[in-house]
């Protein structure tokens, strides 16, 4: 394989591997179809390379492995731009004497093309099994077509996000970069993410097995988590380059309900964890309720990730004598003074091995929201108890 092509394929493999939803998509395809080998393949005129794989057949292909493209049906998918679906090779008029089923020993097979958003062919989402399967029904073909579309959109999302983050870190103080960066994140990233979330909602309406529905739920949660990362980067950009996070201040009589909603959502997202909430906010508070809900959410997520998983996270929010106080506490090893000095810096994580999928912006954004409100954020950590305290007068 030509060196430049090999480098490009290696980059494509890394991109597919970085898409959090791909493993759950492969699991869902296996659950919907009954196929025991499912993969995402990069297909060029001269090569076929595995980018992600679910193998319950001991087929023997791992990520990065290749096949002679002329022995595969993915070559036909590449040339025609259309899916190939085989329920049963032995009764299929077109493929019962084809060399590919004989080489690889399958009876059922499906391969759906993957395209980049610019229309360039990328490869296939494909699966096979030595046992015949009913794959040509609309519920299966439509679902795989949707999964292929989601992967295709996410390929572009990953490229844009990587380019934008690289540009941000290299030229953070450029006003022109700020506007371009926010525009890219606000439009180009949120649009495909919205497609993924919508796609998960469509799949929930199908009559899927319970295990497949659980995987679809994970896809939806993954997309929402990525959306949260995008929001964090947008807030970071505005906070560092635009003079702070913009607020829509107004007397908010329903801040308690907003905080309770945050707790309910996080209980749903972390069902294995206990969150003990004591929230009582009487009267209207001059604030941006959405931003304070974001502040609380970031603090509680931080406590869930870094606290003792066997112990609860405590959330207290009260308004007394005209002052709003929010305290989020967790048990666990006390932080060192050196760690506490770094907490609110962007892209910093105290323990990269814990919660390492984030960008390290959550507490920085907490600090920015507190500052924009004219409030204070403090940390106390001693005797295996850490508390973040936000006060607003």
Description of the molecule:
It is a single chain. The protein is α+β, with helices and mostly antiparallel strands and 393 residues long. The protein has two domains: 3-223, Beta-Lactamase (2-Layer Sandwich); 250-392, 2-Layer Sandwich (Heat Shock Protein 90). The protein is 47% helix and 21% strand. The protein is built from eleven helices and 13 strands. It has helices spanning 3-18, 22-33, 74-80, 99-104, 138-170, 175-204, 210-241, 255-269, 289-306, 337-342, 362-372; strands at 37-43, 48-55, 66-67, 84-86, 108-115, 121-129, 250-252, 275-280, 285-287, 313-320, 323-331, 376-382, 385-392. The protein has a six-stranded antiparallel beta sheet, with helices on both faces. It has a five-stranded mixed beta sheet with strand order 8-10-11-13-12. The protein has a two-stranded antiparallel ribbon with strand order 7-9. Strand 10 and strand 11 (323-331) form a beta hairpin. The relative contact order is 0.08. The model is unreliable at 353-357 (pLDDT under 50). InterPro entries: BphY/WalK/GraS-like, GAF, GAF-like_dom_sf, HATPase_C_sf, HATPase_dom, His_kinase_dom, HisK_dim/P_dom, HisK_dim/P_sf. GO terms for molecular function: kinase activity. Keywords: Kinase, Phosphoprotein, Transferase.
């Amino acid at each position: 394989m030509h060196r430049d092509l090999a480098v490009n394929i290696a980059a494509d493999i890394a991109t597919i591997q970085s898409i959090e939803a791909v493993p759950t998509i492969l699991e869902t395809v296996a659950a919907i179809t009954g196929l025991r080998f499912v993969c995402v393949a990069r297909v060029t005129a001269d090569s076929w390379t595995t980018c992600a794989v679910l193998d319950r057949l001991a087929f023997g292909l791992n990520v990065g492995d290749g096949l002679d493209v002329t022995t595969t049906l993915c070559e036909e998918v590449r040339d025609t731009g259309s899916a190939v679906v085989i329920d049963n090779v032995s009764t299929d008029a077109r493929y019962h004497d084809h060399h590919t089923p004989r080489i690889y020993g399958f009876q059922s097979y499906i391969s759906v093309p993957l395209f980049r958003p610019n229309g360039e062919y990328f490869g296939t989402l494909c699966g096979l099994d030595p046992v015949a399967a009913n794959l040509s029904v609309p519920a299966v073909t439509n679902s795989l077509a949707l999964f292929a579309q989601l992967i295709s959109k996410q390929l572009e999302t990953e490229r844009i996000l990587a380019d934008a983050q690289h540009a941000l870190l290299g030229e953070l103080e450029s006003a022109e970069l700020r506007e371009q960066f926010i525009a890219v994140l606000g439009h180009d990233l949120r649009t495909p993410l919205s497609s993924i979330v919508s796609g998960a909602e469509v799949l929930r309406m199908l009559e899927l097995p319970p295990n497949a529905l659980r995987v679809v739920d994970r896809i939806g949660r993954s997309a929402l988590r990525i959306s949260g990362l995008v929001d964090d980067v947008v807030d970071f950009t505005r906070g560092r380059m635009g003079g702070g996070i913009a607020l829509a201040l107004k007397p908010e009589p329903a801040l308690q309900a907003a905080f309770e909603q945050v707790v309910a959502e996080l209980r749903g997202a972390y069902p294995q964890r206990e969150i003990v909430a004591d929230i009582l906010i009487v009267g209207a508070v001059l604030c941006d309720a959405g931003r304070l809900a974001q502040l609380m959410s970031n603090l509680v997520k931080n406590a869930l990730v870094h606290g003792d998983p066997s112990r609860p996270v405590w959330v207290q929010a009260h308004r007394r004598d005209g002052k709003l106080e929010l305290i989020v506490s967790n048990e666990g090893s006390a932080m060192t003074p050196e760690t506490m000095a770094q907490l609110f810096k962007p892209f910093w994580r105290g323990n990269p091995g814990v919660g390492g999928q984030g960008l390290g912006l959550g507490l920085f954004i907490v600090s920015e929201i507190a500052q924009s409100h004219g409030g204070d954020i403090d940390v106390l950590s001693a005797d295996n108890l850490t508390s973040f305290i936000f006060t607003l007068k």
